[in-house]
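Per reviewer request, we include the raw input and output of the structure prediction for the construct analysed in the revised manuscript.
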Amino acid sequence: MPVRLYLLAAGTFFLGTDVFVIAGMLPGIGHSLGTTLAAAGQLMTAFSLAYAVLGPLLSGALGNRAPRTTLTAALCAAALGNLVCAGADSLPAAMAGRVLVAAGACQFTPQVAALAAALVPEDRQGRALALVNSGLVMGSVLGVPAGTWAASAFGWRPTLVALALGTAAVGLGLVRGLRGIGTVRPAVGARERLAALRGPGIRAVLAVTVCAVIAEYSVLTYAGAVFADATGGDGTRLAVLLLAFGLGGMAGNTFAGACMDRPAGRRLVLISVVGMAVNFLAMPWAVTSFPTALASMVLWGVTGWMYAAPQQHRLLRLAGPAGPLAVSMNSSVIYVGAALGGATGGLLLSLLSPLDGRWIALPAAAACALALVPEAAFHRATRTRRATPLPSAR
């Protein structure tokens, strides 16, 4: 793998940390800004909405620029947003900072996926995508716990400043590391981009993503309630379970990278969705003890992270010149699905009361089963249109 890919993975690491670490800072932010925890939580809502809306818009406007320009600007925007948030004296000012972070993050991830695939031979594209996605996994496994601890030990403002400096350092590295690399895709107009995104295969891929994300976030958002029997309300035990989920995610992402460029890679998304469905079906009974809950979380991490890189791979191949825009739409769908999943899980939790929260996993299994419908449609559409086969299908 080219050294440049590791630099790109460092960028996804800082952004992956940035996306989720704010959750652990919300109590401190709310106290500092003189607002409630619920109001401070709208920082995450503002980020998600900005990411979902700005992703396709900015990708369409900046998609024909050189990666050195767009990726460096994206990281600098994220770094500046963190500095704005760190210096905020009111909730609206902090929200403005998070929107700026979202504007950078929503451009970096799709462009990195397209660039990673372009920097390597066709038979290594799967491994390249998995490598840059590993930064996101490492951000959730290592970056978020480290950032949460730092915010507790030193304060949320210094922690955001440190995160901004690390993000900016990678951006400066890209100025030199991406020198001489031209646009990843040929210049195309808005009409051509929209035409490339109308294909039923692309719609099916995006539908798979939204179903899978709704299923995952309806459980993950309320993990404390779902795993209450296994943890006994102990936060340390819950942290261990979340760490197991992250470590499983690293294994799943690595496995996907090893298989995407091989014939078996064609079924990775199917295996992922079916694996999650089976795991969620068994989860209400598995979470009654800590060891079985631990095993369930590892399996969920493996299967849950197995579909991310293959989905990007599919979109890049199907959309052609509009590949980065398609990946950007996929990223937006993820955040829409996360918001819907959180809302769905909260509604189910209120409806299930006084029953255990562990039963939320059963509707999540149904959502995964629903994802099999667009997955089947994707395979039919690609066969009918005689689309270029995925490298992973060879």
